[in-house]
Structures
1.
Amino acid sequence: MALKEEDVSGLKERATAILEILKKKYTSARVALKFSSPLEILVATILSAQCTDAKVNEVTSSLFKKYHTAKEYAQADLKTLEQEIRSTGFYRNKARYIKQSCGIIAEKFGSKVPYTMEELLQLPGVARKTANIVLSNAYGVVEGIAVDTHVRRVSQRLGLTKNKDPDKIEKDLMRLFPKEAWFPINYLVIELGRDVCVAGIPYCERCPLVKLCPLAFSFGQRGKKVNATEQSL
Ligand code: SF4
């Protein structure tokens, strides 16, 4: 469902207040994945689907010592690569995406990770979230807001979107936050999502946004079952 036009100015005001509070609270919010090149952040972000950043960093600490170029990943033995990334979960799909994407990068993009949204979206396993993370962190190019599981959950709870689809959530957030906030808001919201607005029952009692949140204290008590609607957020 799209945000109603008449709601947008009020939502924008609340979004601005949310941004200011989060900037003060989480002063060191930044990408947690370790990387030293566009190729490394691309591979790390593909591996981060359904996996913690800490586990990805553990796996990439040895992976990045072995593979240095797109061609090396493209030519890797699939079964070997699968085992090397196995602990990140969904390893068969991830290994295939990395090999195929790197094959395209090597052949079509001169072994350089592309730096436009349009080109990045041509790579298997790369949707807007991954493309946004790669573009902003590797190239300083900000075309949107990376919507991961934390951003999705928290922005729904805060009433900043009614959508469930990440691309639609991203559009809603892009309308509410100024462009200069598109890069930091992702990491600020992730910090909030890890710190207090966790999946399940959030810690509203110590949330800095409690006065701005329509769902504050509506998730029941810890230790009791949450209802189906609350569970889905
Ligand atoms: S008040 Fe509660 S539900 Fe709202 S953002 Fe904070 S932790 Fe999440």
Note: Residues 38-139 form a domain with the Endonuclease III; domain 1 fold (CATH 1.10.340.30).
2.
Amino acid sequence: MNPQLASDERAQDTTSRLRGASPAADDLLLRACAWCDRVHVDDEWISEESAVRKLRTFDRDAPPRFTHTICPECFERVERQRVEHHANRARVA
Ligand SMILES: [Zn+2]
């Protein structure tokens, strides 16, 4: 048996299963943090690698689309830095 042929058949099988299970799979829009590059999946911020594993993006017909935002942790850090920066400037002045 030709192993290449077998894996092609498996790939096609997976694709058709996914299509049947989720017709909107190609409309996936993920939110990514522009600061730490983590991705919002199932109500948590996880690394890109984890998101790829979890969402099996390579099994999809089209890659997911991304929109960029800031995650709550980065927002807090950036906001804290901003406040400290202004506090320091106020002390110097
Ligand atoms: Zn972040």
Note: Residues 72-92 form the longest helix (21 residues).
